[in-house]
Write a structure and sequence with these properties.
Layout lengths: L2 H37 L4 H35 L1 E3 L6 H14 L5 E5 L6 E4 L7 E5 H6 L2 H16 L2 H27 L5 H28 L3 H14 L2 H13 L9 H4 L13 H4 L7 H9 L3
Parallel strand pairs: 2-4
Antiparallel strand pairs: 1-2, 3-4
Length: 301
């Protein structure tokens, strides 16, 4: 994988981010318009225009809070804590050396107190970029292997994968909230036929949109990002075999018990949840099979 491929991924991710910023409000407003059309065909335009300011204000507040608080939310969802330099100079030295080599601003470093092996990068700008490592991956990998994992996460930052992933998490969260509210309204409708019919339409519409948007975001945040991050790590360290070895160890024990949300799970180098998957569900994975990633890395040798 050549450096030009990585640069193309940066440009592609920037385009995806812009498209998602445009597509989200468009789909959301379209969904509300369809609801008002079925709810009151004679006055749906007036109803929609009357509700429009409240919808825009509500979504803007949600997005602003999520945008500003994403780092704290992710730390809360993963149980990550700051890793102090005096606590582990080895990790700091590895991160610093790679950042100096690449001319990158050094990200903050966090640790998850879990004996399993996993890691992820997050952040929207150089001011809040971070790399998070599990205690297990720090303790159980050799220096070359840990360097490969860190280089993989730094490539995600350099490619702006982290920004795209966080935007997708925020958007899916809003649709999930709307779907949950619609379903709760359905349960508490009290059997009123007319109102219940409208609520059912809302629940179905919101759930369908949420599902479709989730698929769109999963494919927009393509599985190719992991292959490119692996290639970027091989390019940074010149040791593809070390990352391949690290991925083997990660694959043997990726479970992070604190991680229960699927949206946060997509940030990690490997899915930190141990759930059995059917053939159909595996088609929508955000991560490619780790064995295939290892095979591709071994071709660099």
């Amino acid at each position: 994988m050549q450096y030009t491929g990585l640069q193309q991924q940066i440009s592609r991710n920037n385009r995806y981010s812009i498209l998602l910023m445009i597509a989200f409000p468009t789909v959301l407003l379209g969904m509300f318009y369809v609801f008002f059309f079925f709810a009151d065909k004679d006055n749906h335009n007036a109803d929609f225009l009357g509700a429009l300011p409240f919808v825009l204000i509500g979504v803007s507040i949600w997005f602003l809070i999520a945008w500003l608080g994403n780092a704290a939310m992710i730390r809360l969802a993963t149980g990550a804590k700051p890793l102090e330099r005096k606590e582990n100079k080895r990790v700091y030295n590895l991160v610093e050396n790679l950042c100096i080599q690449q001319g990158m601003t050094m990200p903050a470093i966090y640790v998850i107190e879990d004996d399993s092996l996993n890691a992820f990068a997050s952040g929207l700008s150089p001011k809040n970029y971070s790399v998070t490592l599990s205690r297990g991956i720090v303790n159980k990998l050799e220096d070359d292997e840990l360097e490969g994992v860190i280089a993989h996460e730094l490539t995600h930052i350099r490619n702006k994968d982290t920004r795209l992933l966080i935007i997708s998490i925020i958007f899916v969260g809003i649709f999930s909230f709307l779907a949950e509210m619609a379903l709760r309204s359905l349960r508490f409708s009290g059997g009123k036929k007319k109102d219940g019919g409208y609520i059912i339409l809302i629940a179905i519409a919101v759930s369908a949109v949420c599902y479709l948007i989730s698929i769109f975001l999963r494919f927009g945040v393509s599985r190719s990002r992991e292959y490119l991050a692996d290639a970027g790590a091989a390019e940074m360290t010149k040791k593809p075999y070390a990352l391949a070895s690290a991925l083997r160890k990660v694959d043997a024990d990726p479970l992070i018990e604190a991680v229960t949300r699927s949206d946060v799970a997509q940030l990690f180098i490997d899915n930190p949840k141990t759930e059995k998957k059917s053939f159909f569900s595996s088609l929508f994975d955000t991560h490619p099979p780790i064995q295939k990633r290892i095979e591709l890395l071994e071709q660099f040798v």
